[in-house]
Amino acid sequence: MKKSKIFASREKLAGILFALPMLLYAGVFLIAPVVLSLFFSFTKWNMRSTPAWVGIDNYVNLLTDSVKYPYFWHSLKVTLTYSLLAVPMTIISGLVLALIINSIRKEKLEGFFKVAFYLPVITSSVAVAAIWKWVYDPMYGLLNTFLEAIGLKGFNWLGDSKIALFAVAILAAWGCGGTMLIYLAGLKGIPDQLYESAKIDGASSFRQFFGITLPMLKPTTFFLVVTTTIGSFQVFDIVYVLYGAGGGSYGGPDNSLLTFTMYIYNHAFRYEQMGVACAMSFILFIIILILTIVQFKFLPQRYD
Amino acid sequence: MKNRKRLIIKFIAILVLSVLTIVMVGPFAWMISTSLKKSSDVFTEIPTLLPRDKKTGEIYINFKNYLNVFKYSGIGKAFLNTIIVTFSATVLNLLINSMAAFSFACTKWPARKKIFALLLSTMMVPFYTILIPMLFITKSLHLYNSLLGLIIPMGGSVYNLFLMKQFFGNIPVDLFEAAKIDGIGWFGLYRKIALPLSKPVLTVVGVTTFIWHWNSYTWPLVVINDPTNYTLQLQLSLLVSSSGGRYSLMMAAATVAVFPILIVFIIFQKYLIKGITLTGLKE
Fold it and tell me: Nearest 5°: phi and psi at A52?
């Protein structure tokens, strides 16, 4: 009895002490930066100077002044186009892989393919950029050699402004192993009885797919579309390694790869306009917030 | 008849998967193959997977690119830096997240639910929104351009905290009660009961954090500007943008950067794949 009383009084203290390191960390490196970012977005600031208050000028100028910020809308368009290419490619390849793997019904083989297809996901984006720069090489790269061998014409994949964005989106689809795993889990969750009764009714496998599999995977698909879109709106590493590092042109051929995050980076670290960069980063936050709210609103809370 | 049809479908599925394996794994094989070639044998009309001398047609293995990469590009130091940063950050992460998870799941104190909700809400904020103030704070704490600046600002993760809290919350209360009767303190409960029972979640979180830190690029890019503090990814990106067409060198460096993660992944793949499916589905 006594002991448990001591416990209760000590519980508060112990609880707070155990949480303290994380609370300190989160306060300094997660919560304070959000507040500061919002504050800096209303200032003119280069990280060394004292921030000078400019009100909503940064936002207004970004949205309306096409002379000062000629690439703001362009970079949004690039990011949107990239997402429209990368998201469907990633989701569809992930689904197709999951469907084929699920159809073999052999655990050992399944494990092997899962590991093989997941490899690109655990590879760093810098290494992915390095490997594909070589595969995409216009003269001796594997891809063009292969295309020429089967009688097609090769492309200057990363250097031609018309297809560079597409070529980079392919790298995102190469990492569809994560999507595949989540789809596989979704497929395993579909009760077998549904297929059995469909078979008794004489439904073809085509009908089974569109009548059972796809509708049952709807929550999974919705979740994946939103999270993949949020991810692709923040694409940076690969684009920066391919086009920005080492004093490159920073936006790819004809700025066709000047994504929103690249534009933030340019303003922050090339032009030293930290205030403007913070305003842009808050616009990014709002876009992603809307996507998150959409997800919470339309996704059924429990589906596992 | 039906069995035969099913067998054919299975055969086609495995065939298709094998072709896809080439697409997914092929670039890695090509990376390793190129890294073992002499630079004179890299550019060929017909690509060869095994390093083959252009003139004599002999098949060989040559580690010179690796030697050169270690000798001239500073990748050895970068490798060491990466190991230091990755290990320290992972340990720090496991420590402060598991402590906080224990606090939120197993103890009661005022306002803990509100604080936890506040922490969870930070997951919605994109990294690029807080990047600049984070750098500013890191500079103010005199951590700029140091390995500590890569470790401490990345020392916690709300996502990991969330996973661990879920797990700790499922430990039967009876276990704690029994230990309390035995006169064990709160630290004992954390150290002797919560932690040992949570090995699966600690492994998943530990390995994913390890891989994440090893591969991390944007944060080191803005925090480090002195080449002696470069991480592997920074060093590799420098080679990618500056080595022109010397692909054999670039691929050797890429192999060095990818190989340790490959080993970690193959050892822990079962845990990882389970973890990803779980967390992915439950958000």
Answer: -105, 125
